[in-house]
Design goal:
The structure holds 2 protein chains of 2 kinds.
Chain A lengths: L1 H25 L14 E6 L1 H5 L4 E9 L8 E14 L2 E10 L1 H49 L16 H49 L7 H31 L7 E4 H11 L1 H6 L3 E6 L4 E4 L1 H17 L6 E6 L3 E6 L28 H12 L2 E7 L2 E7 L9
Parallel strand pairs in A: 6-8
Antiparallel strand pairs in A: 1-4, 2-3, 3-4, 5-7, 8-9, 9-11, 10-11
Helix pairs in contact in A: 4-5, 5-9, 6-8, 8-9
Chain B lengths: L2 H18 L3 H9 L11 E5 L3 H13 L3 E5 L2 H10 L4 E5 L6 H11 L6 E5 L4 H9 L4 E4 L4 H14 L7 E4 L2 E4 L4 E4 L2 E3 L3 H12 L5 E2 H9 L10 H16 L4 E6 L3 E6 L1
Parallel strand pairs in B: 1-2, 1-3, 3-4, 4-5
Antiparallel strand pairs in B: 6-7, 7-8, 8-9, 10-12, 11-12
Helix pairs in contact in B: 4-5, 8-9, 8-10
Classes of the chains: A alpha+beta, B alpha/beta.
């Protein structure tokens, strides 16, 4: 920057030189001015030889100057041009100076201004960036947000943005096509298990009926009868499994949605009554330790399945002479039972086909169905092993109006 | 000398008279079941089902009960049969191809022939059930079902259209009254709890037939019980029932069949 300043000063000096030469024509007396003083130039006569070979010099030097506010003349920095010119066949050396006093201040001022300019430019850019670009990209981020929030199984509305930008509307449409296709495939897959189970029912029915007729044949040997009985039992297991799969599929497909005000206590009492022979056989005592008549908004069939699955499980996995404790609360349902001496894997027990004993004849879907129901209504279900009791607790978040 | 021709003649006459009776085969079956009522009025049942194998099983099972069973496998043959003959009971598969199951039901209702219809369906759908019952069906059974259960349902439906409003079932010296919910042996009432009564009721509806443990459990303890895979608790109930029958001198007994079920038979 200093260079720029100097070169402009130098140009000023050259202009000054021209002016002086012009004035010399009008007033030759200046040709004899050999001191600086008020006009900052001196002229000296030189010989022809020097004059012709003279080279312009620009230098930084000092001169005595007296500013407005200086009491005495002081040495100040100046930029001087030493040059030569010809006038009336005579050669003169001209020294012309320009005060550099303000050079540093000027540089400082320039610098400061430049910084300010720079900063304000940056700020302006940032502001423009945020406001303008944001507005420009708003539809894009809007769409992005909607896509992130989209759930294949639950979101009803496809993402949509209001914009006139063709690229964004194209993106929107393409994504929507993709989502619609995915949803179709997803629904088909969801229906599959239900359809498959459904189809299985008839062949299973036929097998079972044929075996029932076969077992009525009086001419069977003991061995044959035993074998057929074994096949019959296994077929029954298939039927149970199939029914559970069908149920699970229906629950997950939200085919049970007729919510009513259901008294859990009543459902519990009915279930216990139904299972009392089963419990009595294993000499298991079922106690309702605490009860509340609060109503829960739930499909009655699902409530029945939920409670009876839990109670049945509690009896089935129990030891002889064991106990089952049930607590029905305003906001929760808890069931505890005695059983194996160690805790079960709490992360796995609610998964499909998990069995605590390998040879258990259960379907492995009992608790999976329970979990499917609690997931459907947004209830919280947990398992813990405390005081040698296996406890399962379900918490209902809202009492009367559970939203799904 | 004269005896042999007379005996032979008598024999021939007897055979002929028996031959001319349509119900010869059903007679023998009826005798097997000790139920003489069917000689006079053989119960006719129409089974409308498109699954060949299932149809055969149902037919065999019902014929063992002494019923006359006719079959139809599609819409047209079904309607043909229904309008040609009178049936005491119709078993209709609602899931016939081309949605014709419900159409048959509607046609039957339209022509006032919708008595004693039991709907068979693979779908445990409440909507289907309500629609079926609305259209005039008397009962609804879902596949897969036990033959003993089907049998019990058919007999229950027949009882409504019954001869002399009979409210009783008899087997040897055992008598069961549905209305009074009473069982008597040699006219003497015996004390039974609710479950025992239900079990005996089921056995009587299926006398001389195999009743599997599963079938019994589902009928008496409800559908939910089938997820209990251990039916040993039933043994307890049967034991108590057997003791009571013995105590009151019943001429019938509950026989164990290969560990898979029971059969109520005459001693």
């Amino acid at each position: 920057m200093e260079k720029e300043i100097k070169s402009s000063i130098d140009e000023g000096l050259r202009n000054y030189k021209r002016l002086i030469i012009q004035n010399a024509h009008k007033d030759p007396s200046i040709l004899h001015k050999t001191y600086f003083d008020e006009s900052f130039f001196t002229i000296q006569k030189i010989d022809k030889k020097t004059g012709l070979t003279f080279v312009n010099q620009y230098l930084d030097t000092i001169l005595y100057m007296q500013d407005f506010y200086d009491p005495t003349p002081e040495l100040e920095e100046v930029r001087m041009l030493i040059t030569a010119f010809e006038f009336d066949e005579e050669y003169y050396m001209l020294k012309v100076a320009n005060a550099m006093v303000d050079k540093e201040d000027m540089v400082a001022a320039f610098f400061k201004n430049t910084i300010w300019l720079y900063l304000s430019l940056i700020i302006a850019i940032l502001i423009i960036n945020n406001i303008v670009l944001k507005r420009l990209w708003k539809p894009f981020y809007d769409l992005l947000f909607q896509i992130k929030e989209y759930r294949l199984d639950s979101t009803q509305k496809l993402p949509k943005v209001q914009t006139r930008t063709k690229e964004f509307t194209d993106l929107n449409n393409t994504i929507n096509t993709l989502l619609v296709d995915s949803k179709v495939v997803y629904e088909q897959q969801k229906q599959f298990i239900g359809n498959a189970s459904h189809e299985l029912q008839t062949p299973l029915a036929i097998s079972i009926n044929k075996m029932e007729l076969l077992l009525e044949d009086k001419n069977l040997s003991q061995e044959q009868a035993t074998t057929i009985t074994e096949i019959y039992d296994i077929s029954q297991r298939m039927v149970r499994l199939n029914k559970s799969l069908l149920l699970l599929s229906k629950i997950e497909n939200k085919q049970f949605l007729k919510n009513q005000e259901v008294s859990l206590l009543e459902v519990t009492q009915n279930s216990i009554e139904e299972l009392e022979d089963f419990a009595a056989f294993k000499k298991i005592e079922i106690l309702i330790k605490k009860s509340s008549t609060t109503l829960l908004s739930i499909d009655p069939t699902l409530a029945y399945i939920l409670i009876s699955n839990l109670i049945r499980n509690a009896i089935f996995h129990n030891i002889e002479n064991g106990v089952v404790h049930i607590t029905v609360d305003k906001n929760s349902f808890k069931i505890c039972n005695t059983g194996v001496e160690h805790a079960l894997d709490k992360d796995k027990i609610f998964t499909q086909f998990y069995k605590s004993h390998k040879n258990s004849k259960g379907t492995g879907l009992g608790l999976a169905i329970v979990k499917a129901i609690t997931d459907l209504y947004g209830y919280l279900i947990s398992y813990e092993f405390t005081d040698k009791h296996h406890c399962i607790k379900i918490q209902f978040d809202t009492t009367h109006s559970s939203q799904m | 000398m004269l005896e042999s021709p007379i005996v032979i003649l008598a024999f021939i006459v007897k055979i002929n008279s028996l031959k001319t009776s349509f119900e010869i085969s059903y007679l023998t079956k009826g005798l097997e079941n000790n139920d003489f009522s069917i000689i006079d009025s053989t119960v006719k049942i129409l089974v409308i089902e498109d699954e060949q194998l299932l149809l055969q099983s149902i037919k065999t099972s019902l014929e063992k009960e002494g019923f006359l069973v006719e079959i139809a496998m599609d819409y047209h043959s079904a309607l043909e049969k229904v309008f040609m003959y009178e049936y005491d009971c119709i078993l209709l598969d609602i899931m016939l191809p081309n949605g014709s199951g419900f159409e048959i039901l509607e046609a039957l209702k339209k022509y006032d022939k919708s008595e004693n219809i039991i709907i068979i369906s693979a779908k445990d759908s409440l909507d289907d059930k309500l629609l079926g019952l609305e259209l005039g069906a008397d009962d609804y059974i879902t596949k897969p079902f036990h033959l003993a259960e089907l049998n019990a349902r058919v007999k229950a439906v027949l009882r409504r259209k019954t001869q002399d409003g009979a409210t009783q079932m008899e087997f040897s010296n055992l008598k069961l009254d549905f209305e009074e919910r009473l069982v008597s042996i040699n006219e003497q009432p015996i004390p039974l709890n609710r479950k025992e009564f239900a079990i005996l009721n089921y056995f009587l509806l299926n006398k001389n037939r195999l009743v599997t443990k599963t079938s019994l459990a589902e009928h008496v303890w409800g559908d939910n019980i089938d997820q209990v895979d251990n039916f040993d608790f039933i043994y307890y109930q049967i034991k108590n029932l057997r003791n009571k029958l013995k105590e009151f001198g019943a001429e019938v007994k509950i026989k164990s069949i290969y560990g898979v079920g029971y059969k109520l038979v005459e001693k």
